[in-house]
Design brief:
Length: 379
Amino acid sequence: MTELPATPPLSLAKVEPILLRAKIDTPVITSFGTIPERAVLLVRLEDKDGAVGWGEIFGNFPMHGAENRAHLVRDYIAPIALSEEWESPAHAFEGMTRKTHIMTLQSGEPGSFAQAISGVDIALWDLAARRAGKPLWQLLGGKRGRVPTYASGLNPKGFGGIVERKLDEGYNAFKIKIGFGREVDFAALTKMREMIGEDALMTDVNQGWDVETACENWAAYSEFNLGWIEEPLPADRPLDEWRQIAALGGSPVAAGENLLGDAQFGEHIDAKVFDVVQPDMCKWGGFTKTLPLARRIVAAGQTYCPHFLAGPIGVMSAAHCLAAAGGDGVLEIDANGNPIRERLTGGLPPIDNGILTLPSGPGLGIEPDAAALHEFATH
């Protein structure tokens, strides 16, 4: 089969960014900073026949980055998306990328523009699948609408109650933040192992080590039988440093959420420095670029595990992409409280022995609630 399916032409009438914010009881702590509240940046598209599609744009960092990306959609991306009939979502992605190229250079914001375009691309594919009357994973050539999951985003302290709830909800794999020094990290990992036994346990350094620290720590951390150690180095470190980490053995290496573009992903895949590759389709690529990339990852003998940590549209987009790509990857689902995610679409589908079954409805299979959109909207 071709990488992406043919779709009828798309002619848009509306492109609307919708920014939602909510306070949270427990901030999410990483090795580089804290998320004190939740921001969810959605995109709603409507075509000239009244069909609707939804997408989501990365908006976690910096604190008010979501506002900037909303303006980019409104002021730059929407006029392009509305300017012509598109042969397909992929054609629109190429057009939006090409027509904003000089502005990304002039502004020094290639990432922000890429994120805005990604959200529109997701919404275009949702719209196309709704028009086709098919679940998106099926339109994209997937064989099974079920994906394994893991509960993510656990802080190094105070996670006990969350883990207990997630075990009760059916999760059997977890990921915890590390990079706070051995005393804090080892205490957290020891308690996690006491709570979950031999269930899968992954860790995330959030780019918090340099290569010397990573090499010093790798064997000792690997004693906790980790599914992977994620982003041990800053994403822009040279391949030679990543090769040093890959040669250590022990825990698998995971990274990719902060790479941007075909070339960056290609060189890391070809160098085989990651065991687990984690594109974030709300940061770059949408479905148009991420699905072919995911299939390339799987074909290279590596594991595709989508990264995402925000609202329900993004989570379900990652789930559909994982189902369409195949392979043995797992879906990341934020374990922390998120009132927007919980109320916007009535929560995510239930987890059964670690497995999420995708909705049977067309497109992404979920629909934001109008009352929740109003409740969390910024003005």
